[in-house]
Every structure is written in C-alpha cells, then in structure tokens.
Design brief:
The relative contact order is 0.21. The protein is an alpha+beta fold and about 150 residues long. It has five helices and seven strands. The termini are far apart. The longest helix has 21 residues, at about 130-150. Strands 1, 2, 3, 4, 5, 6 and 7 form a seven-stranded mixed beta sheet that branches. A hairpin with a 5-residue loop joins strand 4 (about 65-80) and strand 5.
C-alpha cells in the first residue's frame, strides 16, 4: 500500500457545494448541537475532499493545521507506539489539538477510500469567535469526551 500525504488545504479537488455539505455535516458528533443555519456557516469554511486508502492526513508531532470531519469511509489514528484506533464516519480528528495548540499526537490515515470535510485552523478559530452557538456545541462535545474517559478510568 502506497502512503501519500494530503496537500495543503483548500485542495483543488474539493467537490461538494456548501449547500449539500451542510447536510452531511449534521452527521458529525462534534456539530450535533448546531442548527441548520449554523451548519451552513460551518460548511462555508470547510472543503469536502475524497481521500484514497492509505492517504496520511496528519502526522504525529506536526502542528495542527486542520480539523478533519469524517463524512464517510473510515480513517484510523496510529500512535507512535503503534496502537491503532478507528475514526469512523461522524467522528473528527484535530479539534482538541487546535484548541490546546499542541502538536498532533497520532498519524491520521485513511483506512479505505473516504470523504472528509476539512476545516482549517483559521476557519475553526473564526467560527469559534463569530458563532457563539458553536462554542456551546463544542463544550457539550468536550464534556461528553471527558465523561467517557472518566468512566473508563
């Protein structure tokens, strides 16, 4: 399997108009608390791309540049120690890295051909600043993640 790295965003091969993308973004857990209007605004800041199996979207240790919202297909996180965790449709990768300003901890690799909405760091920060309901949705999403970790611990 050949491994390729995704180019800088926005890519030339983005293919879904924001009007259609906002409906697909409604399936992403991170955006579950957003209204249709808010999803349309988020869609304007995203690029919807197709990635081939084996494509590396992010590398461990790199500064975070994007939030990846998995629309269909499947990705996995591969830690430097070799552990692999699935990132199924409806999941995201990179939001915590951008919020914390910390380097990415895992490689993000397409397991199969996939469709991913890419939200750049600048767009992410603009949305958090200019779309207060997104802050509430993010807080609820983060609280859910913290509770899930607490249950396991």
């Amino acid at each position: 399997m050949t491994t390729t790295t995704v180019p800088t965003f926005p890519p030339a091969h983005a293919h879904v108009a924001p009007a259609a993308l906002h409906e697909r973004l409604a399936t992403v857990d991170l955006l579950a608390g957003c209204s249709r209007r808010e999803l349309r605004i988020v869609a304007r800041h995203c690029e919807d791309i197709d990635v081939a199996a084996g494509t590396v979207l992010a590398r461990a240790g790199d500064q975070p540049l994007n939030v990846f919202l998995v629309l269909d297909g499947g990705l996995h996180r591969r830690s430097p120690g070799g552990a692999i965790r699935p990132v199924p449709p409806g999941s995201e990768h990179g939001a915590l890295d951008l919020i914390c300003g910390q380097p990415t901890e895992d490689d993000l690799v397409a397991t199969i051909d996939s469709s991913v909405a890419v939200l750049g760091a600048r767009g992410f920060k603009v949305l958090l600043r200019e779309l207060p309901p997104l802050n509430s949705a993010m807080m609820a999403w983060l609280a859910g993640r913290v509770r899930a970790v607490e249950r396991v611990a």
